[in-house]
Amino acid sequence: xxxxxxxxxxxxxxxxxxxxxxxxxxxxxxxxxxxxxxxxxxxxxxxxxxxxxxxxxxxxxxxxxxxxxxxxxxxxxxxxxxxxxxxxxxxxxxxxxxxxxxxxxxxxxxxxxxxxxxxxxxxxxxxxxxxxxxxxxxxxxxxxxxxxxxxxxxxxxxxxxxxxxxxxxxxxxxxxxxxxxxxxxxxxxxxxxxxxxxxxxxxxxxxxxxxxxxxxxxxxxxxxxxxxxxxxxxxxxxxxxxxxxxxxxxxxxxxxxxxxxxxxxxxxxxxxxxxxxxxxxxxxxxxxxxxxxxxxxxxxxxxxxxxxxxxxxxxxxxxxxxxxxxxxxxxxxxxxxxxxxxxxxxxxxxxxxxxxxxxxxxxxxxxxxxxxxxxxxxxxxxxxxxxxxxxxxxxxxxxxxxxxxxxxxxxxxxxxxxxxxxxxxxxxxxxxxxxxxxxxxxxxxxxxxxxxxxxxxxxxx
Length: 461
Ligand code: LLP
Known about the structure:
alpha/beta; nine-stranded mixed β-sheet; binds ligand LLP
């Protein structure tokens, strides 16, 4: 399940999520709304798991892609561990039923408070609210299974905090392999010039420096080269760097029991854009299978490859404005709902939800070869020229009140959305067979105003 039109299909000219016409969802809960397919999430998860089963890879879902509690629960039911990058994500993973042991805490800027909460539940910001939110016995909660540390400074603070709390923090070091993932410059993370990880050259001395520190156990290596990665070769290069590093560390007497290869696994925003996950697995399994097993656990952190094509964004056309060369289709979703087109100039296939038979899109692609299309920009209500969902697209005729589906919006859609121009955040809906569930209510204006209701004058110094 890797192409935009796999989980959401046109039947009789109307877009469906499984058996459910998505227009009925929009008519009931309004727009903008993210709609997810539970089946698509499950099958994308299983497909990655199956592809990497020869090396028994453990999947830790990258919560940043979409952190809705119900999506996390669904993935837990499939057996997923969680990869988190903030205390907020960690608490969501835990509230969704993930044992702390199955949580990997990554992120380049962990604060001391976040480390403390990750080591001992008594320090969680939710300590007074956990029961009400469905989490039990937070004060008895032990440490996360693994930290992925990104600097020596972070390890030093972690060692001190763990010692104060009387626990041992298990940690990998995130290695910067200096490998070009050949993806967008904002999502390339494995080059020396990027802020992420520590140079592979420095890893042996860091292992040596922390060898005798009792509150930290360095157990392995982590790498994440970028997202999405559309070629196999950068992963192969990174894996080779890491395997050589493991040899060096073992020769120096260290035990390396975890190799976490991060995320960035392929998915396609247009049909056929990326090779399938199996191609990646076939290229990597031979490099790893000799080492993988009881002594070396392989971890993967997929996010986008599970969620992106499992969700669409529904938006309603508010106005249609004819420009000189193109039509502006002005919608109620924009960069505040889905920032990826504005931020990365990312392509998302977008198409009206109801079309005549001759306008059913055969594939999701940048150019669709159908009769009587008009060049359009699909834009939002935000007061920014960069506020667009799709530019220069040929679309069937659309009118005020029509619904448009923006595809591949399940990952980094809702999780990157904002309240810019004081719009509430969207609703989220899960379709599971015939069941349609609102898994996140639309944010009402009152909740945006609450934190401003009681100004407090500060006495400083
Ligand atoms: N692990 C680490 C350490 C990461 O930094 C990331 C993504 C992942 C796993 C998951 O990568 P995935 O499997 O989802 O590709 N906002 C951008 C993507 C940023 C990704 C950041 N890190 C976008 O919308 O394209």
